[in-house]
Amino acid sequence: CGFYSVTIPEGVNYLGYNAFSRNYNLTSVEVSSNVKIINIGTFNSCTNLSKVVLKSPDTISIKDGAFNKCKIYSAGPIGSGCSIEYAAKNSITGLNSIGRLKELIIDDCFTSFESIKAAKITIGGGMKTLTSDLLNYNCDAESITIRNGVETIKYDALHNVKRGCIISIPKSVSHIESLAIRGEKCEVFIYGRNVTIDRTAFWSDAIIHGYPGSTAETFAKNNSVTFIPLSNAINPDSVTINSVSGDGISANIEMPSERDLTGMEYSWWATNDNGASWICAQDWKLEDTSLSWKPSKYGNYTLVGKARYSGDSSSETQYAVSFDYHPYIAGTCQMPYSGEGGGYLIGVAARDSLPQGYTCELLVLDCNKYLQGLPAWIYQSGKCDFYNGGMWTVWQPEYGYFWTLFRIYDTNGEIVDEVCYGFANI
To answer: Could you give the CA distance from residue 371 to residue 363 in angstroms, rounded to a whole number?
Structure first.
C-alpha cells in the first residue's frame, strides 16, 4: 500500500490487525466517528506516520501496538497540532497502549483518564472544575500544568500521581479540596495569593511554592509542609510585534497567563546602535503591555519590553526582539531584466507619497574592488526625484559581488532613510 494520506469513511467501525502495516509512505490518517477499535498492529511500522485525527464522539479503543514504530509523540484536541488529535467527549481508553507520549493535552470536556503514559500533561482552562478521578491511577507524568480558567480542584482529581511530579496551579484556582492531589514528594506551584486550601489537600511530604504572605504559605506553616517562596519577578513569555509601517511599530509583551499579574507595570526601550545609547519608547505604565511608537530615525532596532511589580526594581525582567524600521522605503527589488541589453532591474518603492522636495539616490559598491583597495563605488545616480512612488534602473553588472545602497534625502539634504543589500552576479 503506498498511500500518503488515508481517511477512514463513516461506515467503518473496526480497523483490523495489520490493516495498514508497513506503509512507509503514510504520513497522516483521519479516523471517522464510527470507528470504535483500532486493532493490534493496524499501523505497525508506518514509520513516517506522524498525524492521526480521531473523530470519535465518545470513546475509541486503541489496542497495544496499534501505532508501533510510528512518529506518535503527543496527543491533544483537534487543532492542537499534536501527533494525535481527538474530538472525544469523555475519554480515549487506549492512549496508554501507544507508548509513553511526550505530551498530552486534556480537552475541556474530558471526565477521566486512567494509567496515562505521558511525560507532560496540560489540562485545559475551559474546565472550571477538575472532577474527582480526572487523572486516575498510575499517572506517570513528570509535570502537570493546569491552565488559567480552572477554579476548583476536587477531591481525588489528581489521584496517585508520580513521585516528585511538578504541578502548576494557576491564579484562577480559588479552592483546592481535601486529597485533591495524591502523590509522594510532589512539588506544587501555587500562583494564586488567596486560594482556599483544605487541610489535607496534599500529602505531608509535598513541597509548596507560593508567594510570601499568601494562603499557600499559611497552609504550609500550619501543616508543617515545606514552603519555598516564589520570586515576584515574572519573566515575559515573549514580545509580539504586531506591525511595522511608516507610522511606527505596534507590539505587546506576552506574560504567562497562570501568574497573578495584578500590580504589574511595563516599559519599552530601544537601541539602534548596538546598545551604545537607549531610547525610552514608553515609560512605565500600570497593567498595559502594549506599545505604539514611531522612532525618530530609520535603522535596525533592538526593542526591549520590561516588566516589574509597580515601583519594585528588584522584580524587573525583560524580553528583547529586533526589527527594521524604514519610515519611507516600503521595499526593494532586484530581478533579471528581459528587455534589450539584459541585466538586472533594481529599484526601491516608497511608502505612500513622499513629502514635497524629498529626493532619492542609488549607489552600487563593487566588493572585489573594495577588498583590493581600489575605488569601489562604481555607480552613483545622484539625487533624483521619485517617479510613480519609486526609483528604478536597469544595470548590467560585471562578474562579481556587489552592494546596492538606496538613500532618501529630505529638503535639507539629510538622509532620512536608507536600505542596503548585497547580491552576486556569478
So the answer is: 17
Q: How far apart are CA 283 and CA 303, in angstroms?
A: 13
Report residue 309 CA to chain centroid gap.
24
Residue 137: per-residue pLDDT = 62
The cell numbers describing 401, all together, are 559581488
| Distance separating alpha carbons of residues 316 and 307, to the nearest angstrom | 6
Cell readout for 314 is 528588584
Measure the CA–CA gap between 246 and 354, rounded to whole angstroms.
11
CA-based torsion, 239, 265, 327, 366: positive or negative: negative
Nearest to 88 by CA among 63, 112, 59: 59
Instruction: Give tens-digit pLDDT for 187-229.
Output: 999 999 999 999 999 998 999 999 999 999 999 999 999 999 9
Taking 50 as the pLDDT cut, the residues of the chain under it are none
Paired with 301 in beta bridges are 323
Question: Hey, what's the cell of 392?
Answer: 528604478
Strand partners for 114: 136
The structure's pTM equals 0.69
CA distance 308 to 330: 36
pLDDT, tens digit (0-9, with 9 covering 90-100), for 7-29: 999 889 899 999 999 999 999 99
